[in-house]
UniProtKB/TrEMBL annotation:
<protein>
    <submittedName>
        <fullName>Enoyl-CoA hydratase/isomerase family protein</fullName>
    </submittedName>
</protein>
<dbReference type="InterPro" id="IPR001753">
    <property type="entry name" value="Enoyl-CoA_hydra/iso"/>
</dbReference>
<dbReference type="Pfam" id="PF00378">
    <property type="entry name" value="ECH_1"/>
</dbReference>
<feature type="region of interest" description="Disordered">
    <location>
        <begin position="324"/>
        <end position="345"/>
    </location>
</feature>
<dbReference type="GO" id="GO:0016853">
    <property type="term" value="F:isomerase activity"/>
</dbReference>
<keyword id="KW-0413">Isomerase</keyword>
<dbReference type="InterPro" id="IPR029045">
    <property type="entry name" value="ClpP/crotonase-like_dom_sf"/>
</dbReference>
Length: 345
């Protein structure tokens, strides 16, 4: 008997309330009028870079892409800065050979980048509240806002690591080959002004205003039809899609290959090794952003003395002589937008 009904319904996918629980250790998810704000974090504080957070970012982005209720997505970080911390114990499975390390470097490193551009078909905004590293989600967004105090870098080479996680690739893309190579190969930091002048960010705003500005833009886009703003986003993503098809896998596999060579040679380890393990690189994070040392042209003395200078800096922090502006003990909360204004269109 024909009842004019499909033989099977649409597959049931998770709703926001379900998948926000899946990723609650890594992101706060807040949605209003189709605008989803993704705030990176670890538990209730700033995100600490780890194998687990590394994987979760790519996984979450893929899940977000399956929910058509996410019409516009804002990516930001909890508190007043981007990610500045690492979990010193968050890389143990990353180092296990062969399978776990392969999965982290072959799959996660690539998915973290490509899912932002190939999975998300809606407009995206990166809102950078301050300095930090692993800025992929913010700078792969269609529009990127940063605060005037933002400084970033590609830190790998100072620790002996091939900079192949696509941060260097994005520097080449946004800054141009020579300037991008310079930042990638010397680890010198670039400022908000550098990024604005070279087209790496769309706007620079006062401290504390990045996410607020992102919501202003998102609400502006809501004045367009859903279909047309979504098609517009595809045009915005096309240059990055072409870039990633050409070069992303070469970059990520190059970093993996370099690491495996150092493991085979037995010189992957602490700051005295040819290549530092992630847990040792993390020891200098706060120092990098609390001082202006890395904004100067880099030299052999800069690289060789960084671990000692960072250690001396931390001693002064512990002695109460100076303040660490990236103290993770300070309570932080995800941003929530003010109510939208009623407009006469």
């Amino acid at each position: 008997m024909c009842d004019n009904k499909p033989m099977a319904p649409y597959a049931k996918l998770p709703e926001l309330e379900e998948y926000k629980e899946w990723f609650k250790d890594f992101a706060d998810l807040y949605r209003e009028d189709g605008i989803l704000q993704v705030t990176w974090k670890t538990n209730d504080g700033p995100m600490h870079h780890s194998g687990m957070s590394h994987r979760a970012i790519g996984q979450l982005v893929r899940v977000l892409s399956l929910d058509f209720k996410n019409e516009i997505i804002i990516f930001t970080h909890i508190g007043d800065n981007w990610m500045t911390e690492s979990d010193p114990n968050g890389w143990e499975t990353y180092s296990e050979l062969p399978t776990q390390r392969f999965q982290h470097q072959y799959f996660d490193d690539t998915n973290l980048i490509k899912n932002m551009v190939f999975d998300l078909d809606v407009p995206t905004i990166g809102a950078v509240p301050g300095p930090g590293f692993h800025w992929d989600s913010a700078f792969l967004s269609d529009v990127t806002i940063c605060t005037e105090d933002t400084v970033m870098e590609v830190p790998h080479a100072q620790g002996g690591l091939v900079p192949g996680d696509a941060m260097g690739l994005m520097c080449q893309h946004y800054f141009g080959t020579k300037r991008g190579n310079y930042y990638m190969m010397t680890t010198r930091q670039f400022t908000a002004k550098d990024m604005l002048d070279h087209g790496m960010v769309s706007e620079v705003v006062p401290k504390g205003k990045a996410v607020e500005r992102a919501w202003e833009i998102a609400r502006m886009w809501k004045l367009m039809s859903y279909e047309n703003r979504t098609i517009m986003s595809n045009l915005a993503k096309r240059p990055l899609k072409k870039l990633l098809v050409e070069d992303l896998k070469l970059h990520t596999v190059s970093e993996q290959y370099g690491s495996l060579l150092r493991i085979a040679a037995g010189d992957l380890g602490d700051e005295h090794s040819a290549q530092q393990d992630e847990k040792y690189i993390s020891r200098v994070n706060d120092y990098r952003y609390a001082t202006t040392d890395m904004q100067e042209p880099m030299t052999a003395e800069h690289w060789a003395g960084m671990a000692n200078r960072a250690a001396d800096w931390f001693k002064k922090v512990e002695a109460g002589e100076i303040e660490n502006p990236f103290d993770t003990s300070k309570p932080v909360k995800p941003y929530r937008p003010a109510p939208a204004k009623k407009l006469n269109k």
